[in-house]
Amino acid sequence: MTDTLSHIDATMDDRLARLFDFIRIPSVSTDPAFAPDVARAAEWLAQTLRDMEADASVRETVGHPMVVGHLDGPADAPHVLFYGHYDVQPADPLELWNTEPFEPQLVPVEGDTHIVGRGASDDKGALMTFVEACRALIETNGSLPIRVSFLFEGEEESGSRSLPGFLEKAADELACDVVLVCDTDMWDRETPAVTTMLRGLVGQQMTIQSGDRDLHSGMFGNAAANALTVMSEVLASLRDAKGGVAIEGFYDGVQELAEETAAEWAALPFDEAGFLENVGLKVPAGEEGLPVLHQVWARPSCEIHGVWGGYTEPGFKTVIPCEAHAKLSFRLVAGQDPEKIRTAFQEHVRAKLPADCSVTFSDHGLSPAWAMDRENPYLAPTLAALSDEWGRSTTCGTGGSIPIIGALRDKLGVDALLVGFGRFDNRIHSPNEKYDLSSFRGGMRSWVRIIEKLGA
Amino acid sequence: MTDTLSHIDATMDDRLARLFDFIRIPSVSTDPAFAPDVARAAEWLAQTLRDMEADASVRETVGHPMVVGHLDGPADAPHVLFYGHYDVQPADPLELWNTEPFEPQLVPVEGDTHIVGRGASDDKGALMTFVEACRALIETNGSLPIRVSFLFEGEEESGSRSLPGFLEKAADELACDVVLVCDTDMWDRETPAVTTMLRGLVGQQMTIQSGDRDLHSGMFGNAAANALTVMSEVLASLRDAKGGVAIEGFYDGVQELAEETAAEWAALPFDEAGFLENVGLKVPAGEEGLPVLHQVWARPSCEIHGVWGGYTEPGFKTVIPCEAHAKLSFRLVAGQDPEKIRTAFQEHVRAKLPADCSVTFSDHGLSPAWAMDRENPYLAPTLAALSDEWGRSTTCGTGGSIPIIGALRDKLGVDALLVGFGRFDNRIHSPNEKYDLSSFRGGMRSWVRIIEKLGA
């Protein structure tokens, strides 16, 4: 193993070059204009696995394709399925990037180096820590000590619509003992973590219509319903005065955080003020009186992602718009039923509308929250391997959603182990996304240790 | 006069052809991309006046140019200044037009014909009723019975920024006994009106900033301020539960409508339900208990014209945006000070912001309301001339703003007489703007009668 770890350190340039090639492909899954690039990223990934002698191929779906690959190992060793996604979020707003989003750069910073680019962290950099760990093990040992399968999807950032069907169809081929996922953060710069709780998601888009045409505010102002006024009132009504979600029944089934877990989290060295200061904020915006960690890990939320309507070009137009649009989502915790939340939200909106206005909804994701079984036999060796590399390790929660985790448990009957090397300040989904070079190096070295320990 | 009226009817095709040429120039003043077209429209108009032997020229300003022209008449006859604007509103949303906005069309409808195109009504069609009336009088009589000056601006739809300065500089040249303005509507299809009240306008654009970057809703949702949530709450807070404007001091100085005027308006045959039904609505949205006519003519209002922020492209992005934008305006009535309203609005917004959010404002117009002196000596002959043409006439209010009216009174020391032939359903500022052929014909014929009566 020492050989493999040294080998990784000695060949960093090649490993970075491959990651850069991958980032250069603008595989934005949500925008149809990028579909050819998404397909190109899938092909690049399949070829990268084939270069390691994996049995790998691109599998078409009704949406963006899957990449599946297999690397043999000892028949009695555990069989792991590594899941990642090769699609990325849109890069906009482009004007806020300091570098080209799809032309990755190394930027030295105090104590580390940033790999900057869209997908550098989420999920191309993270995904490549595992792929490169396998490659390094094969380069030094000729083969892997466990059986490894790969599953990479291209729709994680746009709802993973094809995944459940594909998992069902390919369940036999993807049968395994545990799924490994590398799409999460470390607890802090020094402490790698296994994430044991994820929030679910209900994503919604809505269009409010008032009347059948745009109107002149001088002629109709005051008297005619304004779709943007109605939208503002609807959106404002989603939160109560104490920062909670004001939809009836929204918190039904939500459990108080177990005392033991609350105590564990309270013991974590978390700088609540610094968490917000780091992004230019200082006033916690959510439920009053709840620690920030509870809010982002263990409480459901409602966030508005986009609003548009009326005249938005330079200059001014005194129009009363007849249409207004919004995209928003709810993060869910265990105990909440996504379909019930969606229904309650839509009923809440309809109840707020004046009688002559109407609303239409469309879905952008619907997934329940997830919590890992703490008795899973792969958890302890993984935590031990992480401690070997970093000197420490922990479990934690996360506020994000990885909808696939629920699908994996449902379709393959196995649980997932979430190990990630991302940092809090990676700006994923934002301009100037980055991945620390120490995350990339430490991630590859950690996976080597985990694979060795699972194969021991 | 009968000769001139018959002459107009006999030469409608030529008069329409000139109007169509004018509409074909996309003189959108608010969008810098159309600046060359705005300049072209000014030159077209000056040439049109010169074709009538007027002393006319284009005058440069720091913004879009003015067109000024003069036609002689008897030295002892009244001197009128006709004001109009040759710029138009943007045509968007383009997809809602049934025809090309800048390719005017004649569309037959039951009982009339529509001239369809951006500016067909506001203000190109209206402006040309007066220009063509002068042309027809000269064609039949060789000269006009009064002295006429023309002032056409190219910034009416974007704040008339250059106008006050220009009026001041050109006050001697533009000295006159009364200003005529043709930018208003008839009371109904059969009844022409002189408009004696106009609302003022405070136009504002604002950007709310929360934090210094967009954030991932999974990592920061609940805990971090969301600029769109804050914007929604700010916008929703501008109206109270009874449809009034909830800004402190907003109604200070607003007078109750005089009983006499209220009675006059109550006597007008106005179908309140039909007014809204015509645009697909049925619930009056403004102040509870107030008749719609009072709301749009005699009460101040607040309308949102545009909102945008976050991810608005196809698909979905779970971002917490750090910026949100809105354009909105207040219509004012007599007694309200535009600068005080602007200050009160900005203070209201600032008071609603969380301590770690900020807001910036920019102006889009600032003008007081206006009410005409009922004793003006030109009012009675104008109403009489209108009755001669249409069989009836009336005075009325309007909810719109024509900021120039106040500037004319301030800079030239004369009042304005607002006569218009627009119809309620002309869709000005909206897709499929139209001007009725009967408005165009009746407008030209009305101006001939008014000019003759003022010269008698």
TrEMBL record, chains A, B:
Signal peptide annotation: none
Keywords of the record, alphabetical order, are: Hydrolase, Metal-binding, Protease
List, for all copies, the residue spans of the domain called Peptidase M20 dimerisation: 206-356
Domain of life, per the record? Bacteria
A GO BP entry is:
proteolysis
**Which Gene3D superfamilies does the record cross-reference, listed alphabetically?**
3.30.70.360, Zn peptidases
Q: Show the GO MF annotations.
A: metal ion binding; peptidase activity
One Pfam family this chain carries? M20_dimer
Stored NCBIfam families: PRK07907.1, PRK09104.1
**Protein's UniProt name:** Peptidase M20 dimerisation domain-containing protein
- Phylogenetic classification of the source organism: Bacteria, Pseudomonadati, Pseudomonadota, Alphaproteobacteria, Rhodobacterales
